[in-house]
Amino acid sequence: MDITLDDLLALEPRLTVRSKGEALPETPAPRLDAPTSWAVSARATSPYLPSMRGGEIVLVPPRVTAALADELCDLVREAGLRGASALVFTRGDTRVDRCPSLSAGVAFLEWPERLNGDTEAAINRTLTECRGSLYQIGSNLERQLTDFAASRAGLDALVRVVTTVSGIPVEIQDAHSHPIATSRAGAPGQPANGGGDQGEMRVALASGATLVLGPMRPEQRVIGRFLIGRIAAAADAAMRREEAHRPRGARRAELLEALLAGGAGSASERRVAALGLGLDPDSTFSVAILNGMNEASARAVLGGLGDVHPAGDVERDGLWVVEHPRGTGERPSSAALAELRRRWNSAQGDDAATLALSAPSLGLARLHEASEEARFIATLQREGALRRRIAFFDSFADLGSMRLLYQLRDSRELRQFVHDALGALEAGDQRGTLRETVRAFLESAGSHGEAASRLGIHRNTLAYRLRRAGELIGHDVDEPESWLTLHLALRALDVLEASSDTRD
What percentage of the chain's residues is helix, strand, coil (to nearest 5)? Predict the structure, then answer.
């Protein structure tokens, strides 16, 4: 593992990059990614440079620059040819300004104090301690990762292990830059906000996820570079293990149904459960219930909205979770919903087939609500209170006033409104015949003939039923001024009954 000049500048803050001299205004910035080996000192007499193998930092004290005078540039060139990574001069020594450093491939650094044997020893001690620390951290991490692989632990354990060993926060992000596993909170020696000049290191994983090390202090960069390849390999292996052991089939549907029911524990536990099922907890989801359609057809119909996940059955109807693609906003486009209707109309072959689709829910927090919305629509369809065979919860054309009434389903005011508007009709009409008669009459705009035809009964039978319904309600249903109230009350009763069935 190479220690670069940039690393050394972070480890030994007394070393700084020398600013350009006035005589060399166009000199490019020095490369600081060159590897360093050891610090050595130049001599005032020939040979000016000691034996070198490459990567050395050559200390050039003022007595050497004074002795060399016009030959100083020859020393710079020779150092570059022999593989030196940098030359260090005493701050304020202007004699070096005549020599272009980068033409020889050597960076110019400066030291604020006197350059001597103690300086050389201090820099070499810093390099030796860094290499020893890297060896110790690397060996410790290798042991920990071996145990980690043997235990078949997951990504959460991996990021904790790496942070404990290295002191660097670790995060694994999905393809949308959302965290899958993280140890960023509470890494040793790291401020909570990771501000300042603290950087990150990133590497793409084979799965499409990204490994992020940091934020880290400048002196930790060398540790990050040393470890990141090994951590990436361990993360890829852990993700392959998680994928191999991810629940499938009936077990997967069971776990997904528990998420929909809101019974997967705390918010953090639900997040972990979603990740274990391969779901992005921060995605937008819809819940669909399909009746009279096999799995292949259901996938073909719903697939245009996003990734489709089976979640068991509700009253023998298929329950599905749709994970919408990132970047599509908080709800599917009207074009996508129109395409869904077209696909459903083409695919369904059963006259009794139905599709109920919830409003989109952002994240896991509203997934249970989305499930209740889909169940509510499916119940209305099953009981005949909603005649549309394909219905979207957030479509006014599909639900009309019931979408508003649904929001009031738990209020006392809605129950009281139904009681006041319908009187004894709810309790006195156990079979629902009178209720359906009033509904048909209202939907026929008060036409006895059309209502009787719709119900398939004689007009006299219709008149009798309306009269009986009026007795239970407490007033004549033929009065037009009561029609809006009666119709809304019947809708509200449908909502209350469907909501009760959904929660049973």
Answer: 50, 15, 35
Give the C-alpha separation, 290 to 305, whole Å.
15
Residues 470, 403 contacting (CB under 8 angstroms): no
Residues contacting 406, CB < 8 A, separation 6+ = 373, 376, 399, 495, 499
- Residue 24 confidence (pLDDT) above 60: no
Number of H helices and number of E strands within the chain? 19, 17
For 148-192, write each residue's pLDDT tens digit: 777 666 788 888 889 989 999 999 988 777 777 888 764 444 444
More confident residue, 440 or 316: 440
Number of domains into which the chain is organized:
4
Q: Which domain holds residue 33?
A: 3-115
Instruction: Specify whether 371 is located in the same domain as 433.
Output: no
- Same domain, yes or no, for 272 and 341? yes
311 φ, ψ (degrees, to nearest 5): -135, 35
74 φ/ψ angles, rounded to the nearest 5 degrees: -65, -35
Record the pTM. Answer: 0.55
